[in-house]
Structures are given as structure tokens and as C-alpha cells.
Amino acid sequence: MDLQKITDMIDYTLLNPITTKEDSEKFCKETITYGFKTVFVNPYYISYV
């Protein structure tokens, strides 16, 4: 199974209540790099991400 097939099946989340803006930025870069199809972030960072 290749990486893209795996990332298509993963819901990638960053829901820790003490998440920082830097954490969110890293998370978004990983999301783009690996091609996750579904991501979840805290509502506070929605406008940023």
C-alpha cells in the first residue's frame, strides 16, 4: 500500500486545548506535505489555518 492510499484513510487532528499558532502552522504544513484528506483543528484557529 502506498503513502497516498494510507493518508486517504486518516482523519488528521490537532485538538489539544493548549495548541499554539506555531503548532497549527506545522500541522498545516504536514497536512499539505502528506496529503491528508480530512483535518480537524480547534475552532480558535480556523481563520488562521
From TrEMBL:
It comes from the Bacteria. InterPro entries: Aldolase_TIM. SUPFAM superfamilies: Aldolase. This is Deoxyribose-phosphate aldolase. It comes from Paraliobacillus ryukyuensis.
